[in-house]
């Protein structure tokens, strides 16, 4: 494995593994993206997936929020969850202002065999992500840890069938409730690739990884247990087992199931070190259910960043007080930063996290 510069700030790794920290670490989902003028400048010059596929550009964009604020405790590699469907052989375009579009989504279960690659060589198809991770890790020069990620199988299956964003996922759900066995076969195929992809990211230099089940909350608790939980469980178990077999240091694993408040109990028991929460979950409720078994991450409503500086400061303070800074807690939003967020407001958020985090910890110590 490549040698990397020593890490100067390991707050997030310690927090994710349940160790004490001087203050709660902070990062944002979608921290590298459209709310930043410096990202939009690159985006005007290149297609979205060209940015993802060009390690030098992905490195540049990953570092943009780290350089701008100098207050973040982690970087997340610039890429997308939809690189797995691409590796499987599906075409995906990113339409400006509209989001992802599959010109030819999966329609019937036979498409699994006729339209998707039988065997995906992850190291070939997704080599550009591995290269971007290694390059970014070097460029970070140990300032903060680098996070890798994948989309969870159900969320990716839904995109592959819906062909893009959707209000009710009716096409993807038609598969679940008309062809449950074929759906499971597809979910397993995505799971196998996701496991190999995450292990490759860790070998390339990712120091923490997050699994995004962005459409978890679209499933009933009963269906979640059939179509999501078994697959995200396998991902945590198999990634950890394989790393152990290969004598590679494990990295903290984070699960984000948006909308799946009902699954907090099961999510505490399946091998993830940290659970990322959306804003509909009350911190006290999350703590009562998870009982210290995992670190919690989140969970301010991203739209509070559209509010006044005063409101941002008071919401951050309340969040830190409720989650309890300094132990088993990572500050984040409940979902990604929205494209219309003012970067100045992000700065107010980050400065408050640092200030209040230290203040609350000192109060505990003194
Ligand atoms: C569902 C999902 C996707 N992608 C992702 C998810 C899971 C997180 C979530 O639920 O939001 C994850 C993702 N997408 C992107 C990252 C990069 C790292 C980061 O800064 O977090 C990450 C971690 C870049 C991106 N991914 C995308 C952009 C904007 C692309 C553009 O310039 O048009 C960026 C910077 C495009 C994208 N990609 C996707 C959508 C729905 C969209 C369009 C809407 C949107 O931007 O929120 C799929």
Automatic annotation (TrEMBL):
A GO molecular-function descriptor: uroporphyrinogen decarboxylase activity
SUPFAM superfamilies (UniProt xref): UROD/MetE-like (SSF51726)
InterPro entries per UniProt: UROD/MetE-like_sf, Uroporphyrinogen_deCO2ase_HemE, Uroporphyrinogen_deCOase
E.C. number(s) listed in UniProt: 4.1.1.37
Pathway(s) it belongs to: Porphyrin-containing compound metabolism; protoporphyrin-IX biosynthesis; coproporphyrinogen-III from 5-aminolevulinate: step 4/4
Keywords from the named record: Cytoplasm, Decarboxylase, Heme biosynthesis, Lyase, Porphyrin biosynthesis
Class of this enzyme: lyase
Example GO BP: protoporphyrinogen IX biosynthetic process
Domain Uroporphyrinogen decarboxylase (URO-D), chain residue ranges per copy: 25-34
Catalytic activity: uroporphyrinogen I + 4 H(+) = coproporphyrinogen I + 4 CO2; uroporphyrinogen III + 4 H(+) = coproporphyrinogen III + 4 CO2
Cell compartments where the protein resides: Cytoplasm
Listed transmembrane segments: none
Cellular component terms per the entry's GO annotation: cytosol
Superkingdom to which the source organism belongs: Eukaryota
HAMAP family named among the record's database cross-references: URO_D (MF_00218)
Function: Catalyzes the sequential decarboxylation of four acetate groups of uroporphyrinogen-III (octacarboxyporphyrin) to yield coproporphyrinogen-III (tetracarboxyporphyrin) with the formation of intermediate hepta-, hexa- and penta-carboxylate porphyrinogens in the heme biosynthesis pathway. Acts on a number of porphyrinogens, but only coproporphyrinogen III can ultimately be converted to heme.
Family in the record: Belongs to the uroporphyrinogen decarboxylase family.
Name by which UniProt lists this protein: Uroporphyrinogen decarboxylase
């Amino acid at each position: 494995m490549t040698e990397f510069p020593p890490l100067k700030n390991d707050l997030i790794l310690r927090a994710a593994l349940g160790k004490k920290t001087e203050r709660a670490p902070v990062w944002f989902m979608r921290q590298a993206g459209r709310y930043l003028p410096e990202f939009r400048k690159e985006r005007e010059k290149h297609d979205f997936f060209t940015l993802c596929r060009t390690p030098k550009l992905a490195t540049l964009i990953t570092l943009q929020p780290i350089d701008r604020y100098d207050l973040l405790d982690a970087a997340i590699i610039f890429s997308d969850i939809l690189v797995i469907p691409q590796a499987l052989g599906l075409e995906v375009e990113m339409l400006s202002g509209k989001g992802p579009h599959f010109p030819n989504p999966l329609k019937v279960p036979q498409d699994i065999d006729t339209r998707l690659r039988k065997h995906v060589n992850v190291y070939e198809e997704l080599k550009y992500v591995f290269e971007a991770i290694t390059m970014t890790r070097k460029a970070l020069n140990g300032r903060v840890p680098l996070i890798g990620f994948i989309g969870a199988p159900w969320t990716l299956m839904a995109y592959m069938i819906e062909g893009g964003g959707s209000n009710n996922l009716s096409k993807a759900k038609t598969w679940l409730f008309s062809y449950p066995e074929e759906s499971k076969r597809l979910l397993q195929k995505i799971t196998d690739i996701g496991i190999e992809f995450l292990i490759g990211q860790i070998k390339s230099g990712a120091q923490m990884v997050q699994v995004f089940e962005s459409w978890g909350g679209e499933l009933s608790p009963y269906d979640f247990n059939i179509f999501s939980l078994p697959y995200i469980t396998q991902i945590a178990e198999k990634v950890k087992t394989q790393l152990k077999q290969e004598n590679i240091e494990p990295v903290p694993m984070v699960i984000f199931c948006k909308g799946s408040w009902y699954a907090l109990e099961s999510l505490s028991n399946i091998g993830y070190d940290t659970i990322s929460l959306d804003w509909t979950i009350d911190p006290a409720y999350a703590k009562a259910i998870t009982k210290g078994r995992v670190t919690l991450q989140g969970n301010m409503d991203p739209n509070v960043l559209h509010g006044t500086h005063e409101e941002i400061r008071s919401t951050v303070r309340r969040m830190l007080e409720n989650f309890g800074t300094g132990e088993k807690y990572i500050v984040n939003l409940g979902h990604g930063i929205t494209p219309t967020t003012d970067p100045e407001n992000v700065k107010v958020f980050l400065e408050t996290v640092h200030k209040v985090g230290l203040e609350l910890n000192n109060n505990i110590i003194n």
